[in-house]
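Here's what a typical entry looks like (Transport permease protein):
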Amino acid sequence: MANSLNPGNSASLTLDGTSGGASALSQFRQETFALTRRLFIQLGRRPSAFVGSVIQSLLWLLLFSALFAQAPKSTFGIEGGYIEFLAAGIIVFAAFGGALNAGVPLIFDREFGFLNRLLVAPLVSRTSIVVASALFIVSTTLVQAAIIGGVSFLMGAHFAGGLEGGLIVALVVTLLVFGIAALSMGLAFVLPGHIEMLAAVFVINLPLIFASTALAPMHFMPLWLQVVASLNPLTYAIEPIRHLFIHAQWSLGDAVLAAPWGTVNLLGCVLVLFGFDVVAFLLVGSVLKKKLS
């Protein structure tokens, strides 16, 4: 009985002496669910950051769509108005902003000592701390994307991609969020405090948005900015969503991005985002492993 109650053996032996493989997986799910639920409780008690993010995104949608409302349609390479061009960029802007702030709750937990309590708790896997944060960010950003999509529809941007296209949009947003959130959580463990974390968010946020195709098409940029935009993961999320907004007939082989070095189809953009996630997790994995050990 002494061994069965030992937290260090919780992943290999249960209280009734049965094999701990299935039990460990069940405990991991329970831990992840509990930690994710805690984040949603915090959101319910203090929703100002979420509401502020949604309002900011909607203001960008309103102001920029009004600013370029009279621009020639040929400027943006679409048949509809600028709102149809802009909607995809604002959806990705909201998702990117939410993911970039993924490390902020972790760094506050670290400063207030709650993270230390988690690290000494008998968790079956401390990875649940990171997974819970990622699931929370993905859930909230998908809600933001749905709100922005709904408001865009009311403003005249009709999503032509259908149900399957909507699933592709959800996949693209999720892939982008996972990669950015992983990097943000890595920063939360590397930077000394929340002031440095917030400064990093402010420095990174807007430059990456403007160095993408969120607000203007690739051909509208000077060559050096085209190169930068073609290396920006946000561009590979924006262009597939934009293509699905304006094309009722689409396929994974459709060319959606004309980069300086060649064209990229819809499937290629998804694969680039997947590769970005892999690189992000590899870069952050060693940091998290060290800090969570």
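Residues 1-19 have pLDDT under 50 and may be disordered.

More examples are in the samples folder.
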